[in-house]
Amino acid sequence: MPPLLELRNVKMYYGTSRGTVKAVDGISFRLNKGEAMALVGESGSGKSSLAFTIIRLLPRNVAEAGGEILFHDEELGVVDLAKMNEYEIRRKIRWKKISMVFQASMNALNPILRVQDQMIEPLVLHLGLSREEAVKIAEEALRSVGLAKDVLMRYPFELSGGMKQRVVIAMAIMMRPRLVILDEPTSALDVITQANIMNLLKELKAKFDLSYILITHDIALASEIADKIGVMYAGKLVEVAPADVFFRKPKHPYSQKLLAAMPTLREEKSIEYIPGDVPSLITPPPGCRFHPRCPYAIKGKCDKEEPQTKQIDGSEVACWLY
Ligand SMILES: Nc1ncnc2c1ncn2[C@@H]1O[C@H](COP(=O)(O)OP(=O)(O)OP(=O)(O)O)[C@@H](O)[C@H]1O
Ligand code: SF4
Ligand SMILES: [Mg+2]
Question: pTM of this prediction?
Answer without folding.
Answer: 0.95
